[in-house]
């Protein structure tokens, strides 16, 4: 009966990566653009936004493991100095563009 030794196997790491929009906008009515980045394994796409005033609408998009550690596939909202702030994370390609589901 054949036996196997632990050295007889080759273990290959499985890495999954996603593509996220990557950019920054500050003026209301503009967009983060079409630039994308390929995220490392376990990272997710994120979209952080804060609206302050009539014309200032800050949105930062990219990929992150740590920012999305407790917000996987959901949005978290808070208020800081009377400014509403929202951060959403998702784990599919290009899911962090403004106006996508969960990113209004």
From TrEMBL:
This is Uncharacterized protein. It comes from Mesorhabditis spiculigera. InterPro entries: Snake_toxin-like_sf (IPR045860). It comes from the Eukaryota.
């Amino acid at each position: 009966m054949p036996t196997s030794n632990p050295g007889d196997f080759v273990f290959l790491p499985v890495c999954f990566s996603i593509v996220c929009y990557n950019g920054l906008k500050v003026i209301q009515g503009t967009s983060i653009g079409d630039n994308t980045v390929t995220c490392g394994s376990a990272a997710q796409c994120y979209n952080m936004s804060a609206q302050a005033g009539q014309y200032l609408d800050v949105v930062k998009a990219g990929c992150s493991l740590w920012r999305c550690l407790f917000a996987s596939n959901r949005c978290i909202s808070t208020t800081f100095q009377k400014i509403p702030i929202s951060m959403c994370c998702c784990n599919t390609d290009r899911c962090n563009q403004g106006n996508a589901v969960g990113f209004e």
